[in-house]
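Expect chain and fold; see below:
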Amino acid sequence: MSISASDHKLWEQEQPFITKQRELHPELFAPVMKEEGALLKRVGITAIQSERPKGYIKYSPLDFIVEEIRPSGDIISVDGKEVRPEYEEGEGTVYADITKVGISTLDAVQRVADTLHVEIKQIGYAGIKDAVALTSQRISFRGVIKEAVEALRVSGCLFRNVEENKGAIGVGNLMGNRFTLFIRTEKSVDENSFSKHIQTIQQNGIMNYFGVQRFGTPRFLAHLFGMHLLRGEYKECVRAYLTKESEFELPFFTNKRREVALQYGNWQNMKEIFSVLPYTFRFELQVIEAMITRPNELNAIHAVGQQASMWVRAYSSYLVNLVLSDAEQTGKKMPNELALMFGREQEMDPVFKPWMQKHNTVNYRSFLRDMKFIQAGKNPTIEPVIYPKFHGYKILLEGMIVSFDLQKGAYATTVLEELFQVVTGYPIPEWVNRKEIDSKKELGTGNLDEVKTLLAEEIKNVMSRKVEQEEEK
């Protein structure tokens, strides 16, 4: 039986087991210390300067606020402020603003679809927003009545500004995002130096690197799985996805992969090993279930088609990071746009070819035909250099608040890595101040009072898990 990738009950089901294992083997839940910058190097970013203040991000989901900017220029605010209708009067499509915390857009949409008993394709969204963040965006519903959306109750989500019009929202149907971020700094930031740095960025821009979240947490290996796919190495891809170890994954989970590696090919035994963690290994279990039902690696990859699509795109992102790092280090001039993979209408930009020759992925098109989950249309493009639009910043005793807009296709972490030596995850440094901060209130751009009330339980759960994990370190 296939496993629902978004069923929250799976997460609840595995928690007692994880809690017990943490009590018995706390050392297996302590992260392995890594050299500074190791994660950036893993994803192809090698040219970030070292002289930056150290700052911890995402201690609380409220530290990372993302508000979608619609094509009309309207901001879908986490405050729930109404925006002017951007669609013509009509019927057939229901629109709503979704504010969420502790859940990704993909999982939120899956939960919404399950609650409404509709297919995912009936729900439209423009971009994927982080899980460890407070985010707002507009989504559309086809084949759903307005009253059903108004009555929606989904854990971690608020639905506001519900209206009926025509049309639908598709991927990429946005102008960009506004970020309001609280960075918990090790030391007080020198305002003069910071201000000059921002001015330089606004004048010269920064390289549009793909952020680490593009590469599949917690292992950050998605680009390697994609590389296997684009070489037609389906067996190698499945084996790597199920068993490849990463220094960024906690030892407890790495050990499970080692157990599975020892049983590789005995799919039933592998299933039993992973089944003790039905949420953490939900996609791995889907792959194994497919291999049990119909032993064919390409078929198994199609069983997690959405994930596999992200692996291929992660490889494309890896190429971008390699090319931009090289350009930043050598001073090589970049074109105004870079054409990425997957297009039928034109070839990808030739600047990627030397790297693809090294990776043996030059003939990727012949293998894309096997992957029905990849929708190949017009070539997507990115701008190699981006120019963040800063709205303000504020230095506090506990850290620093920064607010800026980015166009679609650009990542906030790219800007943060330019401004700070970013630290996140575990162990949480002793210098991190744990005080709760309302960044919007501090900047005078609104407040989080309503969100903190309506999503209090979800915020509490996210922070409780963080505190528990921190104490165990």
The first strand starts at residue 54 and ends at 56. The two ends are 37 Å apart (CA to CA).
